[in-house]
Amino acid sequence: MGNLGENDIREALKGLREFRSGKTNDRIFEYPTGHPSSPTGFCFCDKSVLKTIAVCIRGGILAFVLKLPFNRPKVSLLRKMGAKIGKNVYISAGVWIDPVYTDLLTIEDNVMIGMFATIVMHEFRINGFRAGKVILREGSLIGGNAAIRCGVEVGAGATVAAGTVLGKDVPPGAIARGNPARIINKGEKDAEK
Ligand SMILES: CC(C)(COP(=O)(O)OP(=O)(O)OC[C@H]1O[C@@H](n2cnc3c(N)ncnc32)[C@H](O)[C@@H]1OP(=O)(O)O)[C@@H](O)C(=O)NCCC(=O)NCCS
Q: 62: CA distance to ligand 1 center in Å?
């Protein structure tokens, strides 16, 4: 597909707004765009200079706070930025969370996120844009250096092993490990053993 015209961009942004406002129950919003080197309508950098600077400042503040070893400011800043965060959530130092779509992130009670994990709620492709809700259910563990892709749900009590690249859902109590992630369901022995 070629680059988007103004009408396409308006229509696309309307769809994205509806998705973000929760008007649809979809987990993922996808839209075909042109190459991201031209305006796609989805990058904050397509907006005014002031808006772009505001988003950069917001992203910079979140990235800085997430690097710190103090948990509370991270949780309260993410809540202020629209993320839904439960009780007893622990976010280790050095985690990176997508600052543009924090409203698409839900972290339930008793979740722990290990050092340098990355959580992304949007992605560009050569010919498309995708935004997705990330849901970390109660008591799940995201291991250090894991990468969680947009649109993924980690079930209650599930573990995402350190360094895992996760692009699919993890059922409750299961373990996801490796790249690409292999799912080992609760009570199930690793099939390759
Ligand atoms: C997933 C995890 C909980 C498993 O721990 P465990 O129950 O002690 O498991 P073991 O170390 O006995 O490993 C069991 C198997 O999983 C494999 N494995 C363990 N961790 C793995 C990982 N991160 N990626 C891929 N495979 C892994 C082991 O190689 C082993 O495979 P094998 O049976 O074929 O030899 C642990 O490895 C892990 O990733 N913890 C994350 C902790 C963390 O990051 N906390 C936050 C810190 S800030």
A: 29
